[in-house]
Specification:
13% of the residues lie in helices and 17% in strands. By secondary structure, it is of the alpha+beta class. The strands form five sheets. A four-stranded mixed beta sheet has the order 10-9-8-11. The protein has a two-stranded antiparallel sheet with strand order 1-2. 45% of the residues are buried.
Length: 278
C-alpha cells in the first residue's frame, strides 16, 4: 500500500515533449492506494485467460504489430505501420504467440504480457477485482518517493555506468548493442525496484492507465485524485518500452506520457493493476 499525499506531478524537461502535455508541474494530492509492484506477467495473464475464457482483441483481430527486429531474417514480407515501418503486421501474433504462430511464451512466463489492449487490461482487472491505476497514481508510484527526478532512481540514466532499465541501446532501429542485456522484453522483476518497490516503471513495456488522454488536460486537472478527462479517443500509456531511445523517443522518463486507442495491441504494451484502500 502507498500512503498517497502530496506530490509534484509532470515535468518541464527541456528535452521532453511539450506537445504531449508533460507540464506544467503541479501539486497533486492522492488518497492511499495499492499498486502492483510488477507488470502483469504472461503466467498471470494465462491464468486469467484459462479461468475466464476471455479472448483478447489481438486474438479476435487475428494479428498484431510486432517489432521487425524480433522477426527472423527470412520472415515473409508483411505490411508496416505508415509512421513507424519497424512495426510489422504479423498474423497470429498475440499474447500467447508474441512474434507469430511459431513462437511461444513457455520460456518467458515471467515476462510481461504484451499484445494486450486497454480493453483487455480492463477485463483482467475486473476478473481480478482490481483496476487500472489513474495516471496520477501511476506517476506517484513510479517516482518512488523522489521529487521531480527524471527516473525512478534519480537523474542519471545509468548511474555508475550501471543499466537500470530495459531500453534500446545503440542505433535505433538498426542495431541494438544489448548493453542492458535484452533485445525484447525482460522479466517483470528485472533491475532494482524503486523506493516504493516497483520494478520496471521505466522501460520494458508501456503500461496502460485508466485515464483518457488529452495533451491540454493536465493544467486544468483537479488537484485531488485526478482521473483524467471524461471522454477521449485514446488512453494514457506511461513508462516507455524496450524500443525507447534518446534519438527519437526518450519517454522512459517518469514525467513523460503518451497514448494509444483502447483497442490497440503491440508487442511492447502491457499493464499493472491497482486498487483502492479502505
Amino acid at each position: 500500500m502507498l500512503d498517497g499525499g502530496l506530490f509534484l506531478m509532470g515535468t518541464d524537461d527541456t528535452d521532453g515533449f511539450p506537445a504531449d502535455g508533460e507540464g506544467p508541474i503541479r501539486e497533486i494530492e492522492l488518497s492511499p492506494f495499492w499498486i502492483d509492484p510488477l507488470a502483469i506477467s504472461n503466467e498471470r495473464f494465462a491464468e486469467f485467460a484459462k479461468n475466464s475464457g476471455y479472448t483478447t482483441d489481438a486474438e479476435r483481430y487475428g494479428w498484431s504489430f510486432v517489432f521487425g527486429g524480433l522477426l527472423p531474417d527470412d520472415f515473409p514480407p508483411t505490411r508496416g505501420a505508415a509512421q513507424a515501418p519497424w512495426w510489422r503486421q504479423v498474423h497470429g501474433a498475440c499474447w500467447r504467440t508474441p512474434e507469430g504462430p511459431e513462437t511461444t511464451i513457455e520460456d518467458r512466463l515471467d515476462h510481461p504480457a504484451v499484445h494486450v489492449s486497454w480493453r483487455d487490461a480492463a477485463a483482467f482487472c475486473r476478473w481480478a477485482g482490481l483496476r487500472l491505476p489513474t495516471e496520477a497514481e501511476w506517476e506517484y508510484a513510479a517516482r518512488g518517493g523522489l521529487a521531480q527526478k527524471r527516473f525512478p532512481w534519480g537523474d542519471e540514466r545509468e548511474p555508475g555506468g550501471e543499466h537500470q532499465m530495459n531500453v534500446w541501446q545503440g542505433t535505433f532501429p538498426s542495431k541494438n548493442t544489448l548493453d542492458d542485456g535484452y533485445l525484447g522484453t525482460a522479466p517483470v522483476d528485472s533491475f532494482f525496484p524503486n523506493g516504493f518497490g516497483l520494478h520496471n516503471a521505466s522501460g520494458n513495456v508501456w503500461e496502460w492507465c485508466a485515464d483518457w488522454f488529452d495533451s491540454s488536460y493536465p493544467g486544468a486537472s483537479p488537484s485531488s485524485n485526478p482521473s483524467g478527462p471524461g471522454v477521449g479517443e485514446a488512453k494514457v500509456i506511461r513508462g516507455g518500452s524496450y524500443l525507447c531511445h534518446d534519438s527519437y523517443c526518450n519517454r522512459y522518463r517518469v514525467g513523460a506520457r503518451s497514448s494509444n486507442t483502447p483497442d490497440s495491441t503491440t508487442g511492447n504494451m502491457g499493464f499493472r493493476c491497482a486498487r483502492n484502500v479502505g
